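Tokens for cysteine--tRNA ligase. Go.
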Amino acid sequence: MAAARRAAGLLPLLLSSPSRARLPHRQALALTPPLLRPHRLYSHSPKPSSSAAFSASASASNGAPAGRARELHLYNTKSRRKELFQPRVPGGEVGMYVCGVTPYDDSHIGHARAYVAFDVLYRYLRYLDHKVRYVRNFTDIDDKIIARANQLGEDPFSLSKRYSDDFLSDMANLHCLPPSVEPRVSDHIDQIINMIKQIIDNDCAYAIGGDVYFSVENFPEYGDLSGRKLDDNRAGERVAVDERKKNPADFALWKAAKDGEPSWDSPWGPGRPGWHIECSAMSAHYLGHSFDIHGGGEDLIFPHHENEIAQSRAACCDSSINYWIHNGFVNVNSQKMSKSLGNFVTIRKVTELYHPLALRMFLLGTHYRSPINYTIEQLNVASDRLYYTYQTLQDCEESCQQHQSKAGDPLPVNTTNCIQKLHDEFETSMSDDLHTSVALAAISEPLKVMNDLLHTRKGKKQEKRLESLSAMEEKIRMVLSVLGLLPSSYYEALQQLREKALRRASMTEEQVLQKIEERTSARKAKQYEKSDEIRKELAAVGIALMDGPDGTTWRPSVPLSEQGVVAST
């Protein structure tokens, strides 16, 4: 039954290797952040392994046929269907703009969900050999920033810079690759003013008392992205009611200066940009008026992205974006996450107790367009699954460390079939609108096969055992790289996962080892009831004991009280 669950990827994989001496830490590469360094035994370029390289490697290393890279299909919010991704310029650079954060507070798991999703898209496009120019902005001047700065008695730009830096640190820990460009609104005021002037010249905006508003009635296509009709956008929705506006749905392009707020000179007097215009101006500046992909959270479809389309096309009638991509919401314990409900969860709060890649694993376990329900139970599942994955790959590395396979030696058919199946399932799922949950499930069977080769009598006798282990580890490593789950070293990641587990259990490793000694003594004295109590006591706080020929070791696990919940999901 357990094997069936493991193969299906529905349960954390709880196997562990026998106790053995661990390899010493490798010296880290100095030029990259700790969680973004390449794997310690292999040389990786920053670009994820390409589809061609993946297939060529399958052919060269194990005899599996090299398959043609699959065509990518993405769900386009504007057309409301999945479409074949075709770059605007065949063979040219793919332009992708993703709306960034307004840095006035710590980033939350909703931000993690969005930027992990688009990081995977960025990585997979590069895997498919596309060159990508990825732009993600900072809204570093905004009503929320000003209000928070006034509350804290801090300069608005100092506050936004501080939270921007924290956000970048969070993204690095989550293995999100840096975008090509990360523009800030405050550095692009000239571009914003020029675009507003163009919109006014094209009779789609008007100035009143130092403010400038977009005239939605002068843009007939307004509402095409969201499907909303103009009559739906009357007073009562989240649009400030201003009796001077020609239509209650008209929105601000430029806001007249207020006392104590940052402002810039403009043809309409001192002021600052409205929220929506910034993304239109910066995307046009870095990608042109027409580009391939625009992304963001589902909550941005209306009004932000609807307004972006209106602004961009009003400024340049030829402006067009081919694919509008949006990720789903994050709920917390089946409730919408919000500060008012007291269930607002920051990335940093999560990573105090969990490895950042456990959070990433959790997020990738649900399709990016579906709502995701954040619970501690499911985060424990993801953390446990991550530990099992890295432990298997670490055990494989240790076994194969001194082995050098002979070039051209064919692998057993069952090994090549397993590798080719992983390759096909990975590309099929990812090319079908980035089904990361299916891609993750695809590594379950190879991991099980690897554990059999590593730890069972039958597996240890298999022909070309070490060659098979090495080839499967290489393929899984490629999958993890594209998903952003490849650590700088398996060993270091396992140590970090253990440290987080101890913190959740409110124990030190010395205390765990003391409990193991007490249990060993109880077993020698045939006090089996006491021995079981110690095991259950540790299992209750997420510490699993593993008995082996070399004694008893421990590993993180799903707490005992949650295992019934996990088995039923």
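The CA atoms of residues 258 and 271 lie 8 Å apart.
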